[in-house]
Design a protein that fits this description.
alpha+beta, five-stranded antiparallel β-sheet, 21 helices, eight-stranded antiparallel β-sheet, single chain, globular
């Protein structure tokens, strides 16, 4: 099964297909593609809005006629993790009352019921073969409160649904996490984040929540005022304290962002970072290994453009100057053909070297940037440093001509093409304060790139770097600690997030799956271990949705769980386990990863 991320961005958050009479395959992306792959299917859907026709609805009558209950296989969007569930252990409740009854029954029986959202997490954090529940049917927008500047939604609503509901009211979410197909429950529970030195991770947007707990406490409504630290633990609770059923989030006025993409040398990126972090609302760096190139992407409210930023300077009518963006500013300096020429040329050379005529010029010219990079990498040995270097060099040349200015609504500019199926490992570490960023952000990158390039590691572009302020959620990788310890440093804390990737070939390029397995092993055994080694002195913590742990002493991830416990310290670990004792005493919401980090009952 081959599903590309770029296709998935326009698809529903998740889908499922029945193969033969034995099992259903649930995938976070593209129901129609799965249907084609499965040939003859009966389906249900994870994460689709009830207003959208689904394969499940089309095949409902067929499913009802099936005499035997089916087992279920759930795959995450990148195809790196899956879980098989026995008949009767996967649930999709259709109402709050049905969810409450399901959880109460599971509690009394001791039946596992791990919550899963859109199955987007690269590490399959929500997966557990003992039993799972998905809230895709609980996706209502409950209330939009313009006076309080909040929106209340059922936790199964996707981020994209919430954005669509807010748009007519002139509102939007404060930030996004590169894509918008997460269910809100998962979006906040794993600490998703965007970028912006003054903007915290998304769990900080939560002002109230409701969890359905497998305990004598039943349904629990929480706010900061009513529950304090328990509220902060539950909003980024990894699905371990209760099934998040309703969430209230902060919203902000909708606005358009001016995006500027430019290319700096590494020394220029280092020198300019402190200024850029303060000048721009959103900023991210994309480092290209083996190339003296950092792609810089900034976004600013069109009505609050920095005078030294993009655009045209004009009078504000009050004796001051301001920046605006004109049609001439947005006009690209190079044509699409000129921008894509380095990538097109490299792909054609690679195909010619193999006498491969499967892709004609029309197909190649019709590909977007992400698809081209996927195919270029997959057309050679993806673990050959020389091949990866050629691809990175072509990407450098592309960005040198693809830079410029664009203007669009914030919910469009804060999403971007992450590429195809891939392994991702992302870490977070403290980087000073907004007023004094310090050098940790660049020091880490210089150390990492030095190790990559001196060892010849086949690291594809980009290594993405983003920044956020801190979070008061104890389990956030960007946690600033207990609120009672507030200070200037905690209120103005700055954290850097760095993500490394290795792309996976599609089925067309890897019908046996062997190449994917070689890349998987290399990524875990070499690349991730290198990042952890470099990050030791920077107090790194992995993003929860990208954390890989193992209890096998021979596995490269065998020491990760202990390092996570050490990072958070005994007080946070004990607080989380105490909350688990209160709200999930039988540990039926847990998973292998959570148990390895925090310990089983």
């Amino acid at each position: 099964l081959s599903i590309r991320h770029s296709t998935a961005r326009a698809a529903a958050a998740a889908s499922s297909a029945t193969i033969g009479d034995e099992s259903r395959i649930h995938n976070g992306w593209a129901a129609s593609l799965l249907a084609i792959a499965a040939a003859t299917t009966a389906a249900t859907v994870i994460g689709t809005t009830t207003e959208t026709p689904t394969l499940a609805e089309a095949k409902k009558d067929i499913e009802e006629e099936e005499e035997e209950e089916e087992s279920t296989r759930i795959l995450n969007w990148s195809g790196t993790h899956h879980v098989d569930l026995a008949p009767g252990t996967y649930h999709e409740p259709e109402s709050q009352s049905e969810l409450e009854a399901l959880v109460a029954d599971a509690y009394h029986k001791g039946q596992h019921i791990r919550p899963v959202g859109s199955a987007l997490s690269p590490n399959g954090l929500a997966f557990d073969s003992r039993g799972m529940v998905c809230l895709s049917n609980l996706d209502k927008i409950v209330e939009i409160n313009k006076e309080e500047m909040t929106v209340t939604v059922q936790a199964g609503a996707r981020v994209s649904q919430v954005l669509d509901a807010l748009r007519p009211h002139g509102l939007t979410l404060p930030n996004l996490a590169s894509i918008a197909e997460q269910q809100i429950g998962g979006f906040v529970s794993v600490g998703a984040h965007g970028t912006g030195a003054l903007i915290p991770p998304c769990d900080e947007f939560v002002t109230a929540l409701t969890i359905v707990t497998p305990s004598e406490n039943g349904v629990v409504k929480m706010t900061e005022a009513t529950h304090g630290q328990l509220f902060r633990l539950a909003r980024l609770g990894l699905g371990g304290l209760g099934i998040l059923s309703e969430v209230t989030l902060k919203v902000i006025p909708s606005h358009r962002l001016v995006e500027q993409t430019s290319v700096l040398s590494r020394s220029e990126a280092k020198k300019q970072l402190p200024t850029l972090l303060k000048r721009h609302k959103h900023i991210r760096y994309m480092w290209i290994p083996y190339e003296d190139c950092v792609v810089v992407v900034t976004n600013d409210d069109e009505n609050e453009l920095p005078l030294l930023g993009p655009g045209t300077e004009v009078s504000d009518g009050k004796g001051e100057r301001k920046k605006i963006v004109t049609a001439e500013d947005i006009k690209p300096k190079f044509s699409k053909d000129e921008q894509f020429a380095p990538l097109h040329d490299l792909l054609r050379k690679l195909l010619e070297s193999k006498n491969d005529t499967s892709l004609d010029d029309d197909t190649i010219n019709g590909m977007g940037f992400g698809d081209l990079r996927d195919v270029i990498l997959a057309s050679g040995n993806m673990l050959d440093p020389d091949h990866v270097k050629r691809c990175n060099k072509a990407e450098h040349k592309f960005w040198a001509k693809a830079g410029g200015i664009d203007l669009a609504p914030s919910d469009q500019k804060l999403q971007f093409d992450c590429g195809g199926q891939q392994w991702v490992y992302e870490v977070c570490f403290p980087s000073g304060t907004y007023g004094m960023p310090g050098t940790a952000s660049i020091d880490f990158m210089e150390d990492l790139l030095k190790e990559i390039e001196s060892s010849g590691l086949p690291a594809p572009a980009p290594i993405e770097q983003r920044w956020t302020s801190g979070s008061t959620s104890p389990l956030s990788p960007a946690s600033v600690g207990p609120q009672e310890n507030e200070s200037y440093d905690s209120n103005n804390s700055l954290f850097s997030w760095v993500g490394v990737i290795m792309y996976l070939p599609s089925e067309d390029f890897d019908p046996t799956g062997y190449r994917r397995q070689f890349i998987t092993d290399y990524f875990k055994d070499k690349y991730c271990k290198l990042v952890r080694r470099v990050g030791e002195k920077y107090d790194i913590m992995c993003h929860w949705a990208k954390l890989e742990v193992s209890d096998d002493p021979n596995d490269s991830n065998s020491d990760v769980a202990a390092s996570v416990r050490k990072h958070f310290g005994p007080s946070v670990v004990e607080a989380f386990n105490s909350a688990r004792d209160k709200y999930d005493p039988k540990r039926i919401l847990s998973s292998s990863a959570i148990d390895q980090v925090f310990g089983p009952k």
